[in-house]
Amino acid sequence: MNRFCVRISLLWTGLLLVSPDGILAQTAKARPADRSNPADTAKIDRDYALEATMLGYFAKDGSRNPTLKANKGDRVRITITNGELMTHDIALEKLGLKSKTLQEKGSQTSITFRADQSDTYYCTVPGHRTAGMVGIVEVVEGAISTATVAGQVPTRNGQPLNLGFESGSLSDWTATGDAFANPLVDADPSPVHEKDMTINFAGKYFLSSGGTANYKRTGTLTSAPFTVTQPFAAFRVSGGALQDTRVELVEAATNQVIFHSTGQGRATLQPVVVALQPYLNKEIFIRIIDNETGISQIPYIPNDKWAHINFDEFLFYPTRPSFPNELKPQDIIILPPLDPVLNAGLSGPEAAKAMTPPKGFKVTLAAAEPDVVRPICFTVDWRGRLWVVEGHTYPVPAPEGQGRDRILIFEDTNGDGTLDSRKVFMDGLNLVSGIEVGMGGVWLGAAPYLLFIPADFKTDKPAGPPQKLLDGWGTQDTHETLNSLRWGPDGWLYGNHGVFTHSKVGKPGAPDSERTKLNAGVWRFHPKTGQFEVFAEGTSNPWGIDFNDYGHAFITACVIPHMYHMIQGGRYVRQAGKHFNPYTYDDIKTHADHVHWVGERGPHAGNFRSASAGGGHAHAGAMIYLGGSWPQEYRNDVFMNNINGARLNRDHPARAGSGYTVNHRPDFLAMNDSWSQWLNMKYDASGAVWAIDWYDKNQCHSSNPDVHDKTMGRIFKITHENDKWVQVDLSKASDTELVRYQLHANEWYVRQARTLLQERGPNKKVHKALKEILKTNPDPTRKLRALWALHVTGGLTEAELTQLLDHENEYVRSWAIQLLAEDKAVSPETLKRMGQLAQQDNSSLVRLYLTSAMLRLDPAQRWEVLEALVQKEADKDDHNLPLMLWYASEPLAEVDMKRALALAQKSKMPKHLPYTVQRIAAIGTDDAKKLLKELNDRVGQMGHSHEAHELQTLIAKVLNE
Questions:
Q1: Is the peptide bond before 20 cis (omega within 30 degrees of 0)?
Q2: pLDDT at 146
Q3: CA 424, CA 408: separation in Å to the nearest integer?
Q4: CB neighbour class for 843 (10 Å; exposed up to 12, middle 13-18, buried from 19)
């Protein structure tokens, strides 16, 4: 009897059984229907049950994303059970049917439909379909059968070999190690696996190298050689999708591996088919390998119980056999080995010694517990002192007035690298996650508030109570609150915000109509005008922002690809949720040409296995090194801590089109300590870099405060042999000296001096000196510094900025555009000049800034500039411009839909016209429908083409919705 002839076990739900002929038989127990779908109460002809995970939808027989077959007219129900603590659902593409969303592990939902045509089922959560949660519903004719041809047991010396272990022994096999000391199992559920696992083995026995109970064992099992007598073979395998748990077929004469397969991280044995035509009449043997212990070296990460291999029944076949649950190579996503972890739980001095910086650098311990505990954010002031927040309240906000966070001021008074001076500036603060100093005080992100504490910097004491500048910041996910406060080159205070925290930001007492929604992206606040706005939206949980020599912002993110050049008005790919503007349609993707995790299972599965690529998906901090003393190769590179990888990643932004492509560089520094958790890094007056380390064995956020260590924290200093310690106090510098500092090689001086000039206010002598730099200095970065300083001190008129639109340097022209649009209004003369620039300027960077400026102006003012920009065919493949131009053009449909449609028809930007069709359809008026019908008629008269067909299909779809 062919033991590979199996039922469609994916239809086994515990409620319904499938008989060998494919007919459903109802059991006594009925599953409650998903009441969100009334059709579930009707008779069901085909009932499918799948487990939903990020790796795909899995059937009971182990098949991944199985093809679900039905006859035309069948009523089909697909029930999914959430296999993990993650958001999942199931939807049908053509029918537009979607289940409710699951979040808890073990929760269930279903969709019910009439099988009319083949369709695609998938998960609608962003990124999950791409990650592999997608399969086919196939409408077929005739009986749905799973029969296959009979297999044949290989022989040696005329006797069948014991390749299915039905002898109850390891005869015909040779074992090494202890993994196969007692490998045969005769029960399902298996005594060496967890009870809820179905093995689905053939005959009386199957083989396991330890199951989930004895996964730490290692060894090999090798069969006797045998001759290939048929062109195909199949065997059953399950267990870990790991490099060192696998089955190999080996050519005996050459000892070359001719085929191999792992499991796919599940217990159910599945058939693997092997083509053996090239090896007919040659001898081969089977080698089953388990060299993986599964032992985790991360204190809070459990051992990998899938570090084992299960095997059963090797058979030959005269033709290629077909199995409904065949394990195919594309279904196996192999995990790389765990990274070695050298250290954990070191003392401060030991931790510094364990790190491996590049040649010429050294890392020293500057401060450690008990002098600093739980450092969550910090900044460096104009004296080179560190203002460090201890986050004692995190992760649970305290009741109002009961916060426990405090601000410490550290200073190295003698240049030995030790922070020997320590003061407490303020305590009793609540859930602080960001800090900056300047402009008369201390600025804190402390959800639900943005706070300002006036300070007496002579005594280093508060000069008054904290002022609530803004409120409405969310606390739903307390590791995604407002963070990474930093002064921008334009004089605004910038910060980040995470995707799972939902804020409605406004002045205290403001109604919702005067508040700004925010849940992912970069925001900014002006310290003098009090204006708040979203600078760019999207990404995931960014926890680091910095600006390069040209004032361009970059952030680091987690889970999704990590690196983004943040453009004013940009909308970026989101880890979850939808853009606030429903007409966004598409968003800007990562600017990096790489990720910092390995493998094909997605970012989470790469954690602690990705040292070769950078360490994993979780990043904290962003420092673009402009300190001046390190070798030139590091200037303008982005440094970020890789939390799971315990290392400093280094990326290099290279100009490409209107922005950048960010390239991978070798990791700068390895901490070699799994408890290391650097949250941010900043350079100082010497060019050296300070880093705060939230030292904790738990590397993941949890709302449970007990999983985090409450007693540890460190501050480290990275120095290069070129660094020279200096003791400075720029607050004592004259205005003239602060202007000169705009030319300094170390950006620390530039930024501190600019903020001091901004605080001091307008000064004619300062303006004159800065304008001289802008006019005569040959270096465009120095011209930009002068331009920014003039802007923050009120030293430029609109006429002067408009003159800069003719400047020879693209960076100067670009920044003149941004500063002209700062107040969301320009004069008719300036707008006319921008229109000319849109037509004539040969810089895609300038065209990007023009697009951002249009996003800030009233839509009715955008026509002339956008009509020129959308016709620049050179920008059609640009990373940023096609979508940025859409964001700027989209509101024009509400202003004049005919003109907006004419604009889209002229556009050279991909998808501009179909997006405009969708946008006009969304208006929903009779005039809108009439306009689209007229377009449809015109397209129909233009002859047949793929583009015309797609456009007409889209028009028909949106008109029928």
A1: no
A2: 67
A3: 5
A4: middle
Q: Which of 560, 671, 552 is nearest to 622 (CA)?
A: 552
Could you tell me the end-to-end alpha-carbon distance of the chain, in angstroms, rounded to an integer? 55
- 3-class DSSP assignment, residue 812: helix
> Who contacts 159 (Cβ-Cβ below 8 Å, separation ≥6)?
none
Rounded-to-integer distance, Cα 681 and Cα 379, Å: 9
- The predicted model gives 242-260 an average pLDDT of 97
Residue 625: DSSP 8-state: -
Contact 378, 356 (CB under 8 A): no
CA 714, CA 938: separation in Å to the nearest integer? Answer: 69
- In whole angstroms, give the CA distance from residue 199 to residue 192: 11
Q: What is the CA radius of gyration of the chain?
A: 32
Task: Answer for the pair 417, 684: CB distance below 8 angstroms, yes or no.
Answer: no
Which residue, among 526, 532, 536, has the nearest Cα to 497 in the 3D structure? 536
CA distance 551 to 484: 17
Q: What is the pLDDT of residue 300?
A: 61
For 278-293, write each residue's pLDDT tens digit.
Answer: 999 999 999 999 999 9
Report, as an integer, the average pLDDT of 723-732.
Answer: 97
Q: What is the 3-state secondary structure (H, E, C) of 543-591?
A: CCEEECCCCCEEEECCCCCCEEEECCCCEEEECCCCCCCCCCCCCECCC
Q: Which three-class secondary structure state does DSSP give residue 837?
A: helix
Q: Which of 950, 915, 919, 920 is nearest to 934 (CA)?
A: 920
Alpha helices in 552-609 (DSSP H): none
pLDDT tens-digit series, residues 197-211:
999 999 999 999 999
CB 44 within 8 A of CB 76: yes
**Is residue 900 over pLDDT 70?**
yes
Answer yes or no: is pLDDT of 331 > 90.
Answer: no
Name the pairing type of β-strands 68-71 and 97-98: unpaired
Average pLDDT for the chain: 93
What is the SS3 assignment for 435?
strand
Write the pLDDT tens digit of every residue in 822-834: 999 999 999 999 9
Q: Considering the chain, what percentage of its residues have pLDDT values greater than 90?
A: 86
Q: How many residues would you count in the chain?
A: 961
Q: What is the pTM of this model?
A: 0.82
Residue with tokens 């002209």: 820
CA distances from 95 to 33, 42, 245, 443, 796 (A): 20, 18, 41, 52, 59
Which residue type does 923 have? Answer: I
CA separation for the pair 25, 656 (Å, rounded): 62
Mapped onto helix, strand or coil, the DSSP state of residue 647 is strand
SS3 361: strand
* DSSP H or E segment with residue 920: helix 912-923
State the Cα–Cα distance between residues 88 and 83, nearest whole angstrom: 9
Other CB atoms within 10 Å distance of the CB of residue 664: 17
How many other C-beta atoms can be found within 10 angstroms of the C-beta atom of residue 947? 11
Q: SS in 3 state form for 668-726?
A: EEECCCCCCCEEEEEECCCCCEEEEECCCCCCCCCCCHHHCCCCCCEEEEEEECCCCCC
**DSSP of 167-213:** TSS-TTEEEEESTTSS-EE--SS-TTS-TT-----SSS-EEESSTTT
pLDDT in tens, 93-120: 999 999 999 988 999 999 999 999 999 9
